[in-house]
Amino acid sequence: MEFPIRCFTCGRVLAQKYKAYKDKVDAGEEPKKVLDDLGVDKYCCRRMFLSYTDLAKEVVLFRRN
Ligand SMILES: [Zn+2]
């Protein structure tokens, strides 16, 4: 599924930061440093990034025809 638009706990809008986060982490930067740089300071918001798994390719196998 897609990255959530808002933090589930505090409601802060986070989706616009996900691409920058993903690009930097894929390039080898520490997730901690990337989240600090993006200004994601609350741990409820940080877990949204750290625990997110993209399941779109798996879920699409179960679509209705
Ligand atoms: Zn939050």
Describe the protein in words.
The structure is a single chain. By secondary structure, this protein is an all-alpha fold. It has a single domain (15-62), classed as Homeodomain-like (Arc Repressor Mutant, subunit A), CATH 1.10.10. Helix content is 49%, strand content 0%. Helix 1 (15-26) runs antiparallel to helix 2 (31-38). The chain binds zinc ion. The site of zinc ion has 7 residues, from helix 3.
Question: How would the blueprint of this fold be written?
Answer:
Layout lengths: L14 H12 L4 H8 L4 H8 L5 H4 L6
Helix pairs in contact: 1-2
Bound molecules: zinc ion.
Zinc ion binds next to helix 3.
Integer-rounded radius of gyration: 13 Å
**Portion in strands:** under 5%
> What's the CATH C level?
Mainly Alpha
Coarse shape = globular
Number of separate structural domains: 1
In the CATH hierarchy, the third-tier topology is known as Arc Repressor Mutant, subunit A
Structural class: mainly alpha
CATH superfamily: Homeodomain-like
Major sheet: none
